[in-house]
Structures are given as C-alpha cells and as structure tokens.
C-alpha cells in the first residue's frame, strides 16, 4: 500500500470540524489521508456527515475548523478554481449533475469553464466519453438516456477535467445489476484516485481495497474493506448491515492492483 | 445535431435557410417583425407583399404550406379578440349585411390580424428551420442578457424532468383514490403545485452545487462557437431589407 512518498497524497483532511449555520454539528474532527491511486470507500449510516465531508473537499462548505488539501494544494478561496478542477464530484442524482442540453456540452462544461476551447476541448470531451463508453451518445439530450447511461455520463463530466481525485456519491444507487457491473468495470479501468461514498457494502468490497467508516462526525474505523465488513461488532455499532445472504469472508477478491 | 434532440416545432431539413447560423435568422426574423409592425395599416397591399416574402422563405426552406398553416392555428385565440373589435369599438359606423360595425374597429381588427399573422408566420418559420438548442446559442451569440439565456437553457433541460415529477405525483394521488372533481379538490391541487415548486427549488440548489463543483462562476462558458460569415449575414438580411423597402413604399405611396 506504500505509494511513492515524495508525492503529496491526493487528499489530506486533518482535524476537520463543521457545524451548520443552524447549529447542527456534522463533523467533529475528521482525519483522512488518501494516497495517490488509492480507491477508498467511505462508509457510514445516514446522517453520519458523509455528504458534509464531501462538500468540504472542493470548498463548497467551509469555515469550520481544520484543513483539507488536494494533492498538496490547500482548499482555500484563492485556490477554488484549481481545487474544483482537481476534485471531481459525481453527485447522486445524474439529473442534478447533467444540466446542459446535450451530453457533449455537459461533458465540455468543466474544461470550458476552465478556459479550454476549440479542438483541444473537443478532444478532451471525446476522451472522457470514450472512457465511460458513451461516445455514441454525445449529441443526445441527457433526459433521453437510461439512468445507468446518465450515471456514466455524469462520471465523464468530471473525468473531462482530469481530476486528481474522483469522489462518487452513492455511485451504485438506482442502478440495475448490469449497469452496476458496467460502472464497476469503468471505475476499475480508470487511473485515478477514488473516494466512494456508499451504503452498498458489496460494491465497496468489490472496488475498494480500503474503507473508512464515518460515524457521528468522526472516522470510526479505517482499514482493509474486507476486515471491516467482517468485524460484526463494528458493523453493528455503526448501523452498517450486509445484504441478506452476503458473506464478505466468502468473497475472493481480485488481486489488488493498487 | 443528432437524433432525439429535435423539438416538435422543428422540421428537419437541409435547405439554405436551415443552414444559416441561428443568430442571423433570429436577427432577421426580429427585424422583419419590427418592419411589419411599423407599416401603416392602410397600406393593405404591403401586407400582401410581406406574405409573399414569407412564402418565398418557406419555399426556400422547403416547408410545405400545409405545415405552416397548421402551425399558424396557434394564433386563433388572438384572432377571436380581433374579431370582437368591430363590434365593440366606438366611432363612425358602417352597415355590413345589416350589422352595424365600427370603422375604426374594423381597421383595428385588420391591423391586429395582419400584423399578428405575419409575426406568427415569421416565428413559425424560424422555429421550424432552427433547432431549439441552436436558437439559444444564437441568443448567446447576439449578446442577449446571459441570465435569460441560461434560464431558457435550463427550461429545455429540466422541462421534461419537472413534467415527469408532476406526472409521478399525479399517479401517486390517483393511486390513493383521488380524482380532482370540482372546487373542493382545488386545495389538493394547490398543494401539489406547492410541493412541485419546493422540489424544483431544491433541485435548483443541487444543480447549482454541481455547477459550482465544476468551476461555474456565474457565466456559461462558450462551448460551441458559431461564427457567421459576412455572406451569411447578407443572405439573412434579404428578408428584412426587402420588407423595409416595402414598408417605405407603404409610407410614401
């Protein structure tokens, strides 16, 4: 699991605490380091603060205690443009993510907002759509695609920005098993750091060698995904439940590439 | 652009009119309408010439007359209003088939009818030769207020999403045995409208978050730069310029 030590980790969160303006405290000192190229699952029950944490990664939320830095760059107002290029967040509902009239324009939005134009932009869009296998749909409007296709396009919209870290919020939700598997294949094929927020424990086990449990605003556990899922006491303490009939011990994992 | 992106107003084709950049067509259609509206209503022949001009554009765009005329039906409610004018307007009156009609009302009705019909016909031609998306790009290019263009863009994108939401809510209501009958049920419909508003508002916030996350800072980046050549502008200008000539004759003759 040792990555080249001279490089700054893709993501470094230290002592992050945050309370919403209404006084509700969501994070109580979160420490998390994700090395370059790692795929990490962020697990936790509803209301654990997962979304709050994700929105801190690109500076949408901020102003609490603690620091976040992305590949060595602190998430501060003056760095927002670069930070938002480096952190690609794929939101849960692709209808929120895909807001342009056609797939191509949507994928182009991020790089174009960063000032890219013309042939270079076109090449970037084609490359991102190719990575998720959606090249044939470039000129379709997003609402004419299936849900699984929309999710893949949503991934392409952030890949087009060549992010340092891909943050996926519930990537497998509402997908049928085939789309779920296709998305997993795509995610595995990408050479990018991934932080995956999910309730889908088998999916986390399949894709992420490492997992962290966020519970009540703190990181309650951090380790090999399989070890965490096999720790019944830990699972029960944080309202994490495996699907009926699923035994994480019985799964033979593919040899970890990371 | 590709399949599935067409709106029902648009009629697919490859004519010279279809090929013109949208900003040229928009400007031409707008200028044409302005010219038509500023023509004196007494110059009846001028309106006939305008109609001939539009027919020529329709022919160049290979839009069948039947298609165009059917689209014109959208005008009917306004026509009904125009038809009332001769009966209700004041002033000098003439007898037609034993009915007393106001002269100024008749001119007023003619004015509304002729100018309205020509304006609608020009818009129908524009809409049937230009894709909705292209129209928005044209508006952006013409430097229309960017916020308005963005709002229009989002309307296209989210129109279906919101109708879908409304339909699901309606199905949910009916599945629980609700049928809207009469005034007593208006409350339920009002609440539906209210929750649709809240849902759309919340979606708007989520969309905004997604936009900000991808570097949105208040203006839409230019993704498709659609430049128009001088020749294209000249082609588009044929319609309003000819119409202007007609209009000037209308004022002088």
From TrEMBL, chain B:
<protein>
    <submittedName>
        <fullName>Cobalt ECF transporter T component CbiQ</fullName>
    </submittedName>
</protein>
<keyword id="KW-0812">Transmembrane</keyword>
<dbReference type="Pfam" id="PF02361">
    <property type="entry name" value="CbiQ"/>
</dbReference>
<keyword id="KW-1003">Cell membrane</keyword>
<dbReference type="InterPro" id="IPR051611">
    <property type="entry name" value="ECF_transporter_component"/>
</dbReference>
<feature type="transmembrane region" description="Helical">
    <location>
        <begin position="43"/>
        <end position="60"/>
    </location>
</feature>
<keyword id="KW-0472">Membrane</keyword>
<dbReference type="InterPro" id="IPR003339">
    <property type="entry name" value="ABC/ECF_trnsptr_transmembrane"/>
</dbReference>
<keyword id="KW-1133">Transmembrane helix</keyword>
<dbReference type="InterPro" id="IPR012809">
    <property type="entry name" value="ECF_CbiQ"/>
</dbReference>
């Amino acid at each position: 699991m040792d990555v080249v030590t001279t490089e700054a980790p893709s993501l470094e969160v230290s002592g992050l605490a945050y309370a919403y303006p209404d006084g509700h405290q969501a994070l109580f000192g979160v420490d998390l380091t994700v090395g370059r190229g790692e795929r990490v699952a962020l697990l936790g029950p509803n209301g654990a603060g997962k979304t709050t944490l994700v929105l801190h990664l690109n500076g949408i939320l901020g102003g609490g205690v603690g620091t976040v830095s992305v590949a060595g760059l602190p998430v501060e107002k003056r760095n927002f443009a670069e930070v938002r290029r480096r952190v690609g967040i794929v939101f849960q509902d692709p209808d929120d993510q895909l807001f342009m009239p056609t797939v191509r324009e949507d994928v182009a939005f991020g790089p174009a907002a960063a000032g890219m134009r013309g042939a270079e932009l076109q090449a970037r869009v084609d490359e991102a759509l190719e990575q998720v296998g959606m090249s044939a749909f470039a000129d379709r409007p997003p609402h004419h695609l299936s849900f699984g296709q929309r999710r893949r396009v949503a991934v392409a919209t952030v890949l087009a920005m060549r992010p340092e870290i891909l943050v996926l919020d519930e990537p497998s939700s509402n997908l049928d098993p085939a789309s779920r598997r296709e998305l997993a294949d795509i995610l595995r094929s990408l050479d990018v750091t991934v932080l995956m927020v999910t309730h889908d424990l088998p999916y986390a086990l399949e894709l992420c060698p490492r997992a962290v449990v966020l519970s009540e605003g703190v990181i309650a556990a951090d380790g090999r995904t399989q070890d965490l899922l096999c720790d019944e006491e830990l699972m029960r303490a944080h309202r994490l439940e495996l699907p009926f009939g699923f035994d994480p011990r019985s799964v033979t994992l593919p040899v970890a590439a990371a | 652009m590709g399949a599935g992106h067409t709106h029902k107003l648009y009629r697919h084709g490859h004519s010279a009119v279809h090929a013109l950049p949208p900003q040229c067509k928009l400007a031409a259609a707008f200028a044409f309408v302005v010219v038509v509206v500023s023509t004196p209503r007494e110059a009846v022949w001028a309106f006939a010439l305008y109609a001939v001009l539009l027919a020529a554009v329709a022919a160049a765009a290979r839009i069948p007359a039947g298609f165009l005329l059917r689209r014109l039906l959208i005008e009917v409610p306004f026509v009904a209003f125009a038809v009332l004018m001769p009966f209700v307007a004041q002033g000098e009156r003439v007898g037609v088939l034993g009915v007393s009609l106001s002269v100024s009302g008749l001119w007023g009705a003619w004015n509304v009818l002729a100018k309205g019909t020509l304006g609608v016909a020009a818009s129908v031609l524009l809409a049937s030769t230009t894709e909705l998306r292209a129209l928005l790009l044209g508006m952006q290019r013409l430097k229309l207020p960017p916020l308005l263009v963005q709002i229009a863009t989002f309307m296209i994108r989210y129109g279906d999403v919101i109708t879908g939401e409304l339909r699901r809510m309606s199905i949910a209501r009916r599945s629980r045995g609700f049928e809207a009958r009469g005034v007593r049920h208006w409350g339920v419909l009002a609440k539906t409208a209210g929750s649709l508003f809240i849902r759309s508002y919340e979606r708007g916030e989520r969309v905004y978050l997604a936009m900000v996350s991808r570097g949105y800072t208040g203006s839409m980046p230019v993704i498709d730069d659609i430049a128009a050549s001088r020749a294209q502008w000249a082609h588009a200008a044929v319609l309003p310029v000819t119409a202007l000539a007609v209009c000037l004759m209308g004022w002088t003759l």
